[in-house]
Structures
1.
Amino acid sequence: MFNIILFGPPGSGKGTQAQNLIDKYELVHLSTGDMLRAEMKEGTELGLKAKELIENGQLVPDEVVIGMIGNQLSANENARGIIFDGFPRTIPQAEALDQLLESRNSSIAAVLFLDVNEEELTRRIIERGKTSGRADDQDESIVKTRVQEYTNKTAPVANYYAPAGKLHKIPGMGDIDEVFVLLQEKMDELMATQA
Ligand code: B4P
């Protein structure tokens, strides 16, 4: 399996580019954000708990997302590879993912880090908020909280993967097509070295 993590702050293009990449490389897309929003829409117990945290810009507890990813890995054992989008977002999530993959004789091939500055992140998220209906996209102070959560809890995850040479920084300030070209170049390079 060829497993990739799309990493970066909120609004850096993870969900957007994951969609482009799965179409081109025939990989399975696992987005914890999408899974949580589906639970919220269905009004499940988990969804109701997650809603309050998400709408305040905070991360949901590790055990919730780790459980969801574990279930999805079991459901996709024959996949060619997986793109993890928005997961892991904390060091305990990264450690759990390593264990889940190791127990399936698999591992993370690379972490693609979309590098975008805070001003642009805020601009993109507030712009999406005009049509997305997402409460966490509509208020600048909530976007600030999301960026703070990222800085405090998620940014250190990059250092978890860097020593093994798995972290690859991709300039993410260009438009969607420009960033996709850079991602494809990196994906093709990585896949060629794996083959
Ligand atoms: P996510 O769904 O992962 O949300 P996100 O970070 O806002 O999305 P993303 O970064 O993928 O958006 P994109 O830039 O593609 O998480 C939402 C919430 O769920 C979190 O805050 C947290 O509470 C919870 N959660 C999820 N996973 C969790 C976990 N593992 N642990 C704990 N909690 C978790 O898109 C943004 C906008 O920018 C779009 O409108 C897009 O069109 C636009 N855009 C993208 N690229 C662009 C570009 N190059 N130029 C111009 N616009 C661009």
2.
Amino acid sequence: MIKIKERLFEPYISEHEILERVASLARNIENDYASKEPLFLAVLNGSFMFMADLTKAINMAVGISFIKIASYQGLHSTGNVKEMIGITESVEGRDIIIVEDIVDSGKSMAYLLKMLQRLHPKSIEIASLLLKPTSLRENFHIKYLGFEIPDFFVVGYGLDFDGFGRNLNQIYRILQK
Ligand code: IMP
Ligand code: MG
């Protein structure tokens, strides 16, 4: 059990389970992009750990870049996506893999896909560690998905509760009162 700002969280997905799943996603990406030079575009802050482990598990040279958007406040998605750091890399004609920690309502991802499509990449695929299918309000395909989870709040392995807990090496879920 772990306490963050007076809320209790319990272990949910262990580091071992995460890394096993990440390795299997890495194998799929290696096969799919064997003769290509994909650009991994991670969404900060939440995906920093997933991005590091996923790309380290891939046995080929790939491009790495980051953008920063925010839509969450505390425990809830605001639905309003704010762009804090834009794209610094040239995307035109490239094979892009968006790397996300979690797709919840899908609003952030829908925003990102729209924004990227205007820059004419050759292809766009999504790698997301987590998906909450029951919260999803948008329609897109996640080609590389770690885990589907029910609609409860999680922290750790990149994910935060009000700015804390991103450093935890496994995923915890909020303890219901
Ligand atoms: P969406 O736009 O509603 O899909 O929200 C996606 C973003 O909200 C993710 O990139 C996370 O940063 C954040 N988020 C969604 N669910 C959780 C959660 O359970 N814990 C922590 N952050 C979350
Ligand atoms: Mg995020």
3.
Amino acid sequence: MRLEIAQSVDEAARRGAALIARAVETAVEQRGYATVAVSGGHTPWAMLRELAGMPLPWDSIRFFQVDERDCDVDDEDRNFNHLKESLPHNAQIEAMPVERGDAGAASYAQRLTEAAGAPPVIDVIHLGLGADGHTASLVPGDPVLAETRQTVAWTRPYQGLRRMTLTYPVLDAARLVFWLVTGANKHRALRQLLAGDSSIAAAHVSATCRLVIADADAARGSDACP
Ligand code: 6PG
């Protein structure tokens, strides 16, 4: 798997934004529109603020969430709020309706199919990497790891919150999947991901086109591909 090493967190954010921009421009040129799915956490927001400053065909881009925590709409933990704050005000973002439980997961799966086909083929998916090797909300020991039919599913409580998440079938079908990984605390998980260590959930993402953008702290000792 290709690894790009950035010399700082800010450079990693810029590289991630540039990658999304290129994928979006290609998709719009080839198909007239683009679909982008973004994970939560802390890392992606600087990247999306960089993206927001770019001259993209915003009306032709549909943003989806990779995952969302089951918490109140105004809760700091709600990924959607950070997503909305980071992107331009006119960005089209499909929020995961976590307040609607199982019906919410089903309706989100339907929205994905309407936008990206059956099974959904998303143009570019951003993933984070947990220190325990989780990605999206595909977390260790959760039955959602074995979900192969539903494209959107609920996890059990993880770090105190249930999460609605895209499942492996959607991640694996994407035209491009990239991880944005920063911080020394991700060093071990990143080495496991790059080594294809099947003991971590992230290593089971089998999309054809995958790459990692990592800062020097996370990538310490790893070899970047040319
Ligand atoms: C979530 C995320 C999660 C995240 C990783 C990395 O909602 O918690 O989707 O999978 O991507 O935990 O998080 P950081 O970006 O904060 O390191």
4.
Amino acid sequence: MTTTRTHDLRLRRRLPLLGGLAAAGLLLAGCGNPDGTLQMPLQASEQAKDVDWVYYFIFWLNAFYFIHIMGVMAWFGWRYRRRPGVAPEPSPHHNLPLEIAWSLPPIVLVVVMFYWGFKGYVHLQTAPSDAVKVEVLGKKWAWNFTYPATGGSSEQLHVMQGQPVKLIMESEDVLHSFYIPTFRVKKDVVPGRFSSLWFTANRPGEYHVYCAEYCGDQHSMMRAEITVHPDTEEGRAEYQAFLASTTVMSGESLYRQNCQACHSLEGTIVVGPSFRGLFGSQRKVLEAGAVTTITADEAYIRESILDPGAKLSREGREFDDQMSAQNFAQRLEPEEVDMLVEFIKGLGEK
Ligand code: CUA
């Protein structure tokens, strides 16, 4: 009995030492840093420091308990190991103060974690009413940003320092996830519904957007750049210049995005027939196995976009159907098809 008590006393004297070491480690390692830490990238939004605070609180709490529990366990294992000639100690069966001590503090800590976590979650869900809205479209494999202020869109996200920004996001095809590590924001982008997130960028610079949900073989390439313009005269001018440079959707921009690779405007054949002089002309086409001549009217152009295999051009060459695989009937909105038809009509009758 006497030896056990000496052991207990020695252990009790060492516990504060262990606790002190862990506390020193905690202080030395810090709890988040605007320039980034070993575990976290730099903090470029106003939300980032709160997220990091909760993260490091939970991390260090875990580290503290891990070190102490493992330390005490190893110490006991060694101290009370089986030795020849020493009878095993009887184990205590019930100890109320001890049981309260290991039940109550963890409950309090879990409630604190939940409180800070939930508070942060609600804050990240609730964009301020003066937030600038940007529409985000995720598709395999790029992000597209539309700025309602001008109606223009771009593959780059530009924001002002200190200005809350709310992103309203949707997917054109499969599940994606919009992730800006330096802003500590991430949200799934789900086909068939809108999701949103917001942030206030507080550090001028260029940052990355990633897709954080596997969405096909180019998933890792689904990235975009974010530019945060400084809140200065010059920064505001740069931001306005960017907005002015965004592409407002038009028949021409749709042509460049969707058709240009295969259809020229110069009369030359690239992959498919040229659009030059197409509208209103007489065209030889293969329809249901027979070559006929038709007038390239609006209905023909529309059908050729939505159902490319229906009439295959026999103008100058035997074109086969390489276009159905592009699935424009699914990819283009009805208004976009209208714009394209108008654009091709506007290329003039010849
Ligand atoms: Cu989009 Cu992964």
